[in-house]
Amino acid sequence: MRLVSGELIKLESLAEQDTFVHKCHPAIKIIVTFLFIIISVSGGRYQLASPIALLAYPWLLSTLSATPLKILHQRFIWALPFPVFAGIANLIFEQAPLYTLGGISISYGLVSLIVLVLKTYLTVIAVLLLLATTRWQDIFAVCERCHIPQIFCQTLTLIYRYLAVLTDEAWRMYHSYLLRAPRKKAIHFKDMGTFCGQLILRSFDRASRLYAAMKCRGWNSSSSVASKQPLVFSDLVYLFCSLCAVIVLTAIF
Amino acid sequence: MLKTTDLCAGYNMAADILHNLNISICEGECVAIVGKNGAGKSSLLLTLVGIVAINGGNIKVCGLDVTKANLPEIRKRAGLVFQNPDDQLFMPTVYDDIAFGPRNYGCSEDIVKSTVLEIASQFDISELLQRNAYRLSGGEKRLAALAAVLVMQPQLLLLDEPSSFLDPCARRRLIDLLRDLPQTKLIATHDLDLALDLCQRVIILNQGSIAADGNCQELLRDQALLNINGLELPLSLMNYQISNI
Questions:
Q1: Which of A62, A82, A85, A186 shows the shortest CA–CA distance to A131?
Q2: pLDDT digits (tens, 9 = 90+) for A189-203
Q3: CA of B87 vs chain A CAs: smallest distance (Å)
């Protein structure tokens, strides 16, 4: 539980850095990420070269933004089972050889599985890189400016913040439980109902206090706390260069 | 600066927590509100900024009636520092948290930046600005929460248990800081020594009603009065009595 709030804090801390990528306009970074994802997933299911070539993009971006790829890989592991389970059946149903490498034949099924994992990797890492280089409130502010209804943006902002509150409360309750139940390694099934009920009540109470603190400092449903960053020439250069790099990499391979 | 007339308030219409409170506080005064747990101290502060509903009577804060229409202006003029800084600090960095209020009130980013830096330097927390509020110590969180409220330059400062979670040094530092602030202050506290140190006047609450209102030095020496209202003599006065025996 503490892990979840720790993970959120870690990504938020990364987004506070002061590199060229961090300084770029959030809208540009969202556009680049969106287009990168579209290009990544639009390749053929047996086209291995294209996703491999696109691996250069996250590597380059993480270097430019001083974001350790190791941290992002740790998060990607959570998403890995999904493409593996989705593609594992291909190994059985598509056994015809596609390539032969040093006498070992590589089947269509294996290639499609690898492509699926690579595409998931590129998609997840692109989103994580966006989160690690852009503050969450700036992302929601761009959504607001793109005429996504304000109520959705505000709700998402509050849910994001509420997640940390919920996990924090859960962590406290969990440890308080374990300290008084030394023989138990986790919450016992018979206590789970009470635990969850109390967690909801406590986190609701805490969220209400937090909301009151926000209202006391002038927040209302039409407030936006994101800074209004103007679009500058370097942002357009970044957009142009990123798109060129991705298109060239895809075209060559 | 603050006037309540026959104020009744509560979290719902059926049960009042505060009963017929008549309080008047002048500009520049520093007033302590003391009372046992559940006496209504925190609820009174929340009522003053319109978070707890008024069921009867009225409140004037900085010349404005506490009504729904006036709440944005009242909340700008009266800054409330919550008992638990974790309830107040929620932005990714301390800088963003301090900037939250001014941004909500439409200040330009240049003004926000300059005011945040100024208040941070005044509170000696400039090095914390880029840190996450979750990772601060209790004393640092308290200072950040106070800075986040003072950055809006309120005329009336409402403090709910300001010395909770603080070690003796941080507590002393906070008292010195509060003493230097020019604002009118209303402090809800259990820390009677802090009240003695800072406030000229004290209001004792008991079950949502005023049990006593008067000079801090006089009321907080009255052991019988304190005992009736579920309080004890301040530690500093106890030591004084012991040394005189």
A1: A62
A2: 888 888 888 888 888
A3: 5
- Strands of A85-127, DSSP E: 97-101, 104-107
Domain residue ranges of chain B, discontinuous segments joined by +: 2-83+156-244
Instruction: For residue A118, give Cα distances in angstroms to A44, A63, B15.
Output: 12, 20, 61
Two tokens, residue A20: 């060229």
Q: Please report residues of A whose CB lies closer than 8 A to that of B87.
A: 206, 209-210, 212-213
Q: Highest mean pLDDT range out of A1-10, A139-148, B111-120? A: B111-120
Q: Which residue of A has its CA nearest to B50?
A: A216
| Nearest chain B Cα distance for residue A249, angstroms | 36
The residue of chain A with its CA nearest to that of B74 is: A216
Q: Return the closest-CA partner of residue B183 out of B36, B45, B68, B30.
A: B30
What pLDDT shows up at residue B204? 95
Q: Is the CATH number 3.30.479.30 carried by domain B2-83+156-244?
A: no
Residue B43 CA to residue B188 CA, distance in Å, equals: 10
SS3 letters across chain B: CEEEEEEEEECCCCCCCEEEEEEEECCCCEEEEECCCCCCHHHHHHHHCCCCEEEEEEEEECCEECCHHHHHHHHHHEEEECCCHHHHCCCCCHHHHHHHHHHHCCCCHHHHHHHHHHHHHHCCCHHHCCCCHHHCCHHHHHHHHHHHHHCCCCCEEEEECCCCCCCHHHHHHHHHHHHHCCCEEEEECCCHHHHHHHCCEEEEEECCEEEEEEEHHHHCCCHHHHHHCCCCCCHHHHHHHHHHC
Show residues of chain A in contact with B88, CB under 8 Å: 210, 213
According to the model, what pLDDT value does residue A130 have?
A: 92
Domain ranges within chain A, ordered by starting residue: 2-135+228-252, 144-216
Q: What is the mean pLDDT of residues A148-172?
A: 79
B154-191 pLDDT tens trace: 999 999 999 888 888 888 988 999 999 999 999 999 99
pLDDT of residue B243: 63
Q: Is the pLDDT confidence value at A223 over 70?
A: no
Mark yes or no for CB contact A209/B84 under 8 Å. yes
Q: Considering only CB atoms, which chain B residues are within 8 Å of A214? A: 90, 100
